[in-house]
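Contributing: when you submit paired examples, paste them exactly as shown. First protein:
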Amino acid sequence: MAFKFLKATAAAVAMALSASMATAAAPRGTPESFADLAERLSPAVVNISSAQKVAGAKPGGDNSQLQKKFTPQAVSLGSGFIIDPKGIVVTNNHVIDNADQVTVTMHDGREFKASIRAVDRETDIAILQLDAPPAKLPFVTFGNSNVARVGDWVLAIGNPFGLGGTVTVGIISARNRDIDAGNFDDFIQTDAAINRGNSGGPLFDMAGRVIGINTAIYSQTGGSVGVGFAVPADLASIVVDQLLTHGETRRGWLGVSIDEMTPKLAAELGFERPRGAVVSVVRPNSPALAAGVQPNDVILDFNKRPVNTVRDLTRAVADTPVGATVPMTVLREGKRVVLKVTVDRRETRVLASAPAGAPPSGLKASGLTLERPTRDIIEMFSLAPDIEGVVVTAVDPDSQAAIILQPGDVILEIGWERMTRPEAAVTKLDKLRNLNSGPVQIYVQRGELLFYESLRP
């Protein structure tokens, strides 16, 4: 097309126009150097090392000091950043998970012990508190990742391979990436070099605001190949605020099972493209049931946020304050219906589903505790006397299974295979997880309701 434009231009100015077009095509706002930005931000970025005692290790000798010094430990290295001059540090949970000791090293080499203040495993975010922090620590703030655009410059600072403060630059390669890391995947993808040890470090925009927390990379070698992922600031800042205020997350809960809109169904509904979340199951005693949600409703927006995919609905509900009453638009039999939904709390509803005295024993897999339908289990969960299958007696609220299952559910099939023993169910789920096979279809009975769901092992 450029050549066609030149053909209509006088030959005498062709070269001048070519030069001018080359200049116009150059990236706008490209910094001559990132040095000033890196110098300003680096003091607020820290290196994090966490140590965990190796289970069963017994160093020899009678000297207690030597024993303490040479006790075998597993060491993890990562990055983080200070968000409050009082010594509050944000990092990834996997950097400090199960740590017995956490050490934070500042840009200038000073070291501080730190305690784990709160964590959220679902978004892989952790908050640390420096022990006896000095006055006037440097800190950075979260920006608005919603306004970040593909092609924007970004700067990453971290501790790759334990080398210490390292600065890399790149652009935002993509947004809203789902990498199957959890229920709230919405990653920023960047080609800024991110390697092992960068986990938990900040991804900055050109104004020096944190727009992401570097969390994962795609690599077959372990090193950077230009495909890194960061938790976006609009998600991270909500989680951090809740962890600092409550010591835990408080996510909204709607109480539905939902499916993606298929191209075929979208065409039947007259949509130009697939959008919306299709309700397959409405949970008993849920906010959705109280609001009048029905199976086969298509949720188009929630709390004035458009719902194009299942992930959009999951995020919108989770971000809604517990107890808030918000509008939700559904498409029902070709007509738009606006419902008022009072959001409940996801964490407590999942835990509250288990009756008092629920058994702590049982086999565990994929966030589920599974048992045979013994007489005690049948009485505890008010199940039918002749029930067959594997009974869910507890659900880890931080697991993906918590979205679709609750204590008292009976799993009848996993991947079209009939389940009658917890041992077989655990073996099946563990095998699928090791094969990284993706979601598996399960057949579930809840009271008189029978339904299929997709579970990620």
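Second protein:
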Amino acid sequence: MNERRILIVEDRPGTRRMLEETLRDEGWDTTGIEDGGDAVKRLRQENFDLVLTDLELPGKDGLQVLEACRESDPLAPVIVMTAHGTVETAVEAMKRGAYDFLTKPVDTDRLLLLVERAAERRALELKTRVSEDSARPPVIAGESPAIQKVLRLAEKVAPSDSSVLILGESGTGKELFARYIHSKSRRAQNQLVALNCAAIPRELIESELFGAEKGSYTGADRRRLGKFELANGGTLFFDEIGELERDLQSKLLRVLENRVIERVGGSRSIRVDVRLITATNQSLEQEVAEGRFRDDLYYRLNVFPIRLPPLRFRREDIPILAEHLLAGFSVEMGRPALGLSHKALAALQEYDWPGNVRELRNTLERAVILTEGDEIPAEVIAVGEAHKPVAASVAAYSDLHAAVRETTRRTEIDCISRSLKECDGNKSEVARRLKVSYRSLWAKIKEYELE
């Protein structure tokens, strides 16, 4: 069960200490602050399940603390404390969204009753929000036999708790399919928590997965819940699972076998109940054969594999995808829906889309921005820009420095793209081949949208 966090803002040390001890005895993770200004900063940096604040504070008053909480997390209840002379202010606080108020001196029985009621309301509102989100499965546009086949597989495996391994090139929609499976599962009323294994620094990945106790590493100034605890009762999605270091592969395997985790720096075993969905654009079988991925973990993850087709294998879906994406951009940008000219649609269907649906989305977003009328012309469909020869891309530059920058950019794109293809998407191998750090390679991949 996730530990509940409460922020207590009270400038009198004795009262603050009493409130912290009372709530800590009831299982709350308490953070006490005496200054209203510091509380506002903390609320902008961290998440709390509930806030208990005095009205008269140094720095900023309780109403300003309330406002900061409402901005950072509208669902977090705020209980205000007031002396008899400031009851009118407490009423004003409730008009502005406070859950309730307590008069001083604080009656601990009433305090605990209000706190539990507020916590129950927050849990109900969060559950309602998750339920509303989960009740609408993500739209997977397409009518081709290739995409319909994988949709049928997703619907068959969704009701079970079996591990799913989603395979496919970058940009094919692996996380979208993970969310689709979750939305059709018996866990849909709880959260899906996603983690990209390649995007987290190696020294932080363990605490991201399993959480960390206060003081367990430099900068750990409070207890931190990991992805397993956050996803408890729901689904955990690990993208780029092939990038997980071998020592963490062993720990992940133990969690899958025992359904128990330990936070970094902790000794208490915590039971977790999650359904695991993983994804990769690598060949995990090859990674196993070359000793970079544990075979026992691979068998655990590969219970139900689903391979997503690249966009070039389902070209008949391009008009449907384009229509769906353009409708979304119209809503986002607040403009009437756009159509595609015949030549523009032909350009989309003739291109091979090495970046798949993600590249199609980026291409159409740029086209929408550049289009002034109600139909997108072929001239603004910039397909294959990243793959044009370097000489052609710099011919238009008369400025030497600009030409050098463009040449460098195109050379890096070409070199990284070619290496990713030759190494079957294995970024660790690409980094070794190009003699750069993994983090530098990852930054370039994100910068050039080569994923």
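If you have annotations for the second protein, write them as plain sentences, like these:
The first strand starts at residue 5 and ends at 9.
The mean pLDDT is 86.
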